[in-house]
Specification:
Largest sheet: 9 strands, mixed
Shape: globular
CATH topology of the largest domain: Alpha-Beta Plaits
Low-confidence stretches: none
Distance between the termini: 26 Å
Radius of gyration: 17 Å
Helix content: 10-25%
CATH superfamily of the largest domain: Alpha-L RNA-binding motif
Structural class: alpha+beta
Strand content: 25-35%
Length: 198
Amino acid sequence: MMPRVPKLVVFNKPYGVLSQFTPEGRWRALNEYIPLPDVYVAGRLDADSEGLLLLTDCGPLQARIADPRFKLEKTYWAQVEGAPAEVDLRPLQSGIELNDFRARPAAARLIAEPAGLWPRNPPIRVRKQIPTAWMEIGLREGKNRQVRRMTAAIGFPTLRLIRAATGALSLEGLQPGEWRCLEGAPETLLKALRGESA
């Protein structure tokens, strides 16, 4: 019997979908989108967040992706309430104290609304008198609801959160609910994640 070639699935998770294959309450699940057997989430994404979710059928690869010791940066786009200036981002860039831990310094910058961004379903709540803005935040750690907590701590609550990339793998070419599958030895797939040539 031929040995199984490990898979790495790159999925654009829609809003309202859990990072698991079983639905719960009002949230849908991955079983509606990914018909592959024996793949498991490597690094969760909250149901009310969107974007890049990685899945694999290779246990050691799953552990490497999820473990912050291996320094895979995750890039997020956050639409926030208010109009932050560059100076407002300094606490994120230098490391910010949250209730139960101090977040490490993050790459944070203001950006225009990302090109080709799909509409969220349902749309975010907009208040006519209050503007919104976009920021890009890069993290090498992943505590629960960390990006939302960080933007709230500087006075700009997150209205919409999208994970745009993990390492060198991005959402490019994927609409919500779409996925692509990479296959290869675990080291080859890790090199793809790190943006190194095989």
